[in-house]
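Re-run with default settings, no changes from the original entry. Doing this only to confirm the output is reproducible before filing.
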Amino acid sequence: MEFTIHHQVLLSVFGLAVVMGAVANKTNFCTMGAVSDWVNMEDTGRLRAWLLAAAVAMLGVAILEASGKLALGTATFPPYRTANFAWLRNLLGGLLFGIGMTLASGCGNKTLVRIGGGNLKSLVVLAIAGASAYAMLWTDFYNNVFGKLVAATTVNLAASGFQSQALGDLIGISTPIASIVVALGIAAFCLSSSDFRSNRDNLLAGIVIGLIVVAGWIVTGGTMGNEWKEYADFAETKPLRVETQSFTFISAMGDAARYLTSPQDTSLINFGIVALLGVVVGSFLWAMISRGFRIEWFASGGDFVNHAIGAVLMGIGGVLAMGCTVGQAITGVSTLALGSFVTFAAIVAGAATMMKYQYWRMMQEA
């Protein structure tokens, strides 16, 4: 079989994802844990690592766009900068995802990391979240349940003269310049904590994961990406989702479920599916190296129910919001899209609210 540019792109993505999985496992990078630490213990270490990853990704994209080496525009997957600002979609999807990841003990990325570390509960979460995302992406479920509501509340910014929902366009300045200012502000906040600066794991997680998201944009939107798109245009069977993109995990779970329905169709193997596998492999490798591999299963029937409900909410909410704690809160934010910031805030709000409810319920039962 010929080794094409398509295979080169997928292999590059797999390598980046392996590093992401290993680093996330090694540093205990966890966005749900970040919110939990903040809400329950007033510890912002992992929250700052998450924010630092977003800042690094944002700064990287800004530099690439300013230098002319990357042009995201509005033609990305998902379409982060689209002029159609679906604020309710971002808000509701983010809330559902935040609640879901709390019940399921971790976001999409953390689910994959846990699988690599031997957590069979997370394998069940992956299967259920994947089936839910599949329903949203590849059936009429989204249109039947959310389509009219989203269409009625979507704001057409182009009608008001705005080219996109990137904050730079909205306030009338260069988006790369706006991105640099915002990124430096976020990075300054993160590094203002001496505890955070002294924690090598949090620094490593924030910097490396942010850079991996930038690398994803380069692979699919740079020279290699242009060759990839040209190859796809002339391919006998066009591969799925040959678009400028970077790391996001919930839609990838839905795509993986679709591939499993037709495993003989290799054109369905895309960026997201390869990224899922890479994170699991990277986490597994680190778990074996550090001797941290442990088989885990549900503690009770109630534990299973909570994780199952959480997985459904993650799958539905993640697709509705067009991204997860990585896909919107790091990759999406790196484009400076307004909807990504709304989703980020909604995910945190949903997770924090569920954590407060769980604590209240625990006190009532005590």
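The beta strands are 84-85, 155-156. The two ends are 63 Å apart (CA to CA).
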